[in-house]
Write a structure and sequence with these properties.
With 258 residues, this protein is of the alpha/beta class. 35% of the residues lie in helices and 25% in strands. Helix 8 links the parallel strand 7 and strand 8. Bound molecules: adenosine-5'-triphosphate. Adenosine-5'-triphosphate binds next to strand 2 and helix 2. This is ATP-binding cassette domain-containing protein. Belongs to the ABC transporter superfamily. One of its GO terms (molecular function) is ATP binding.
Length: 258
C-alpha cells in the first residue's frame, strides 16, 4: 500500500467509525437550577457512543448540577435533553425526581459524588442491587465478574459489609454498582474526590480500562491531570457554561492544586 492508499484507507476507516457512532446524549439550550438560582446557563453538549468525556471545573461551577439536570433531579430546568433519541428534558415543574425512573429506563446511570452506599449490606449485595433490569439481573454473575476484573481488590471482599471497607474500596463498590446495569450513558461525578492520590488514580485507571462498547461515559473531575490525554475530549466548565476544550488557565490552576 503506498502512502496515498494508506491515507485514503485511514480516512475511510475514520468515516466508517463516524457513521456508526450513535448520538447517546444531545443537550440543547439547557438551563437549570434550584429555586431562584440558575446554575446551568443555556448549555449544549453532544456525546456519542463509545466516547469518554471529561468535564473539569472548580468546586461549585455546576458539574454536579449538570448531571442532576440530565437525571431530572434539579429544582427546575428548561431546554432539550435527548437520551438515545428520547426527549427526557423540557420544562419540568412537578418536582425533582418525578421522571428520574423514566430517564434511567431510557439508559442513564448516574454515579453520584461521594459514596451512596448502605453500610450494612455486603459488597455483593450492592453489586446485585445495581442489576435492577430483568436482563442485567439474569446476567448478574457475568456482570459481577466484569466489575471484579476492573476492581480486583473487591474480589476477596464480596461477603464483607461495606461499612467496614476503606474509602477507596467503597468508591469501587459505588462505581461498580453503577456499572452493573444496562445503561448507555454513565455520568461519573468526581470519582477521585476524597481519596488518597494513588487510590484516586487507580479508580480513574479502572474507568479508563472499561470497555464501553456502544455506551458513553462523562466523568466530572476537579483534577484535570487525572484525565488529560486519557479521555476523548476534556471540556471545561465555568459558572454553569461549558467552555469547549478546557482552557490552559484552568489546567494550570488544577496542576497547581494537585
Ligand atoms: N440541592 C441544591 N440546592 C440548592 N443549591 C444547590 C444544590 N446543589 C448545588 N447547589 C448550588 O449550585 C451551585 C453549583 O454546585 P454544583 O454542586 O453543581 O457544582 P460542582 O461544579 O459540581 O461542584 P462540586 O464539586 O462542589 O460538586 C453551587 O452554588 C451550589 O451551592
Amino acid at each position: 500500500m503506498n502512502v496515498m492508499q494508506q491515507d485514503l484507507s485511514r480516512k475511510t476507516h475514520t468515516l466508517h467509525n463516524h457513521v456508526h457512532r450513535r448520538e447517546v446524549l444531545n443537550v440543547c439550550g439547557l438551563s437549570a437550577g434550584y429555586g431562584p438560582m440558575r446554575v446551568i446557563h443555556d448549555l449544549d453538549l453532544i456525546v456519542s457512543s463509545g466516547e469518554r468525556i471529561g468535564i473539569v471545573g472548580l468546586n461549585g461551577h455546576g458539574k454536579s448540577t449538570l448531571f442532576y439536570a440530565i437525571a431530572g433531579l434539579t429544582g427546575w430546568q428548561r431546554g432539550s435533553i435527548k437520551l438515545n433519541g428520547i426527549e427526557v428534558g423540557r420544562t419540568r415543574s412537578q418536582g425533582p425526581g418525578r421522571y428520574t425512573h423514566q430517564i434511567v429506563r431510557a439508559g442513564l446511570a448516574l454515579i453520584p459524588q461521594g459514596d451512596e452506599i448502605f453500610h450494612g449490606l455486603t459488597v455483593e449485595e450492592h453489586l446485585d442491587s445495581g442489576a435492577f433490569t430483568p436482563r442485567s439481573w439474569r446476567e448478574r454473575k457475568e456482570r459481577k465478574e466484569r466489575i471484579l476484573q476492573i476492581f480486583p481488590p473487591l474480589k476477596k471482599l464480596m461477603a464483607v459489609p461495606v461499612g467496614r471497607l476503606s474509602g477507596g474500596e467503597r468508591r469501587m463498590v459505588s462505581i461498580g454498582r453503577g456499572l452493573m446495569g444496562e445503561a448507555s450513558l454513565f455520568l461519573v461525578d468526581e470519582p477521585s474526590l476524597g481519596l488518597a492520590p494513588k487510590i484516586g488514580k487507580n479508580v480513574i485507571d479502572a474507568l479508563m480500562a472499561l470497555d464501553l462498547g456502544g455506551s458513553a461515559m462523562v466523568i466530572a473531575e476537579q483534577n484535570v491531570s487525572l484525565l488529560e490525554g486519557r479521555v476523548d475530549r476534556i471540556i471545561g466548565m465555568h459558572v454553569g457554561k461549558l467552555k469547549g476544550e478546557a482552557s490552559a488557565a484552568l489546567m494550570l490552576h488544577d496542576h497547581g492544586e494537585a
